[in-house]
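Query structure, 366 tokens:
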């Protein structure tokens, strides 16, 4: 089976460096918030181009603690999208705020229709850089400044992506990354980070990630246990130097798919001008999505759907009023999107299998 993503292949391509990193941590005797975490925070903040990075337990916790560091809580509203991983909205719930879900741009699947959703209670906007495609940070930044809002970048799928002259994660007030194993920069377990140019926000996150401590065992405010562990930090340090090369490989595979599908009915991914898409996922679109997915499965290809059920239609959230109107583009995308296999270690022979299987599907249609 050709998988949609393959963290085992990523491990094998970095096996020697990862083994050395893990061995170094085990022999150090320090396993939580030690030298490896501090070194990774310094390395990753320099890579993104910000002053501060704070390692935390997961991407969801990164969003949660970022919201808390911006004083978002009960009685506040946070605008984001419904076409995203549920984690984005779960983090808003964790902060005690109210999610307000808006529609997406049909070409890039990123946030749109923000201004109409702003009320006197709106405190922040979470811009999700979905599938590796940056959201329109110029337009969002203009809205943020006009209305005095906080801009939080959800970079969980966009490690290394660029918008204009800078990397995503360096443009909002605060940004959040996940290091889940399938990400462009992935650990071998959960992990996340909060990045910012504001030292006060970073200090707040550092306190909140460890029980609200300012001094050890003294909680200045109620906090959590959300710490990036030393082993994950060491593995991330080992893999960070090859992130740009891995992203270039993803872009190469995406270009091969683009060229192969140009004469099919598939809608292939568009690239936002003045931005760099890093193809965490290669997402195509067709009204025959379910039939295409079944056909690919028969051919030994594991195409997946990201995401089949928008958050506002999820059973856990369906009874809550999250939006100020219908979300037609979101619901249409959920019916039609399909993620084809893409990861740096995907061989050209495997790419050709995917291409042949997709093209054979459309040749067989009446």
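Result returned for the query:
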């Amino acid at each position: 089976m050709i998988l949609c993503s393959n963290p085992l292949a990523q491990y094998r391509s970095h096996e020697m460096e990862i083994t050395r990193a893990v061995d170094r941590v085990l022999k150090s005797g320090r396993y939580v918030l030690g030298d490896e975490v501090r070194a990774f925070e310094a390395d990753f903040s320099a890579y993104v181009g910000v002053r501060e990075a704070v390692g935390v337990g997961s991407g969801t916790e990164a969003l949660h603690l970022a919201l808390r560091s911006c004083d978002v809580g009960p009685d506040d509203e946070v605008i984001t999208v419904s076409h995203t991983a549920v984690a984005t909205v779960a983090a808003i719930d964790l902060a005690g705020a109210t999610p307000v879900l808006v529609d997406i741009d049909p070409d890039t699947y990123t946030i749109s229709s923000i201004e109409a959703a702003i009320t006197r209670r709106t405190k922040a906007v979470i811009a999700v850089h979905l599938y590796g495609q940056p959201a329109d940070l110029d337009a969002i930044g203009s809205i943020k400044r006009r209305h005095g809002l906080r801009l939080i970048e959800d970079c969980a799928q966009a490690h290394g992506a660029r918008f204009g002259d800078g990397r995503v994660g360096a443009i909002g007030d605060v940004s959040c990354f996940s290091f889940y194993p399938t990400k462009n920069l992935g650990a071998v377990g959960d992990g996340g980070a909060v990045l910012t140019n504001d030292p006060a926000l970073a200090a707040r996150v550092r306190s909140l990630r460890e029980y609200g401590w300012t001094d050890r065992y003294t909680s200045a405010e109620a906090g959590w246990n959300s710490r990036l562990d030393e082993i994950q930090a060491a593995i991330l340090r080992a893999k960070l130097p090859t992130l740009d090369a891995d992203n270039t490989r993803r872009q190469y595979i995406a270009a091969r798919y683009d060229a192969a599908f140009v004469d099919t009915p598939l809608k292939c991914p568009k690239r936002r001008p003045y931005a760099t898409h890093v193809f965490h996922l290669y997402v195509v679109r067709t009204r025959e999505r379910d039939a295409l997915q079944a056909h690919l499965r028969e051919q030994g290809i594991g195409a997946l759907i990201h995401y089949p059920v928008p958050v506002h239609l999820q059973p856990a959230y369906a009874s809550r009023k999250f939006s100020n109107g219908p979300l037609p583009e979101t619901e249409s995308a959920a019916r039609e999107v399909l993620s084809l296999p893409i990861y740096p270690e995907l061989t050209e022979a495997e790419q050709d299998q995917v291409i042949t299987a997709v093209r054979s599907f459309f040749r067989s249609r009446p």
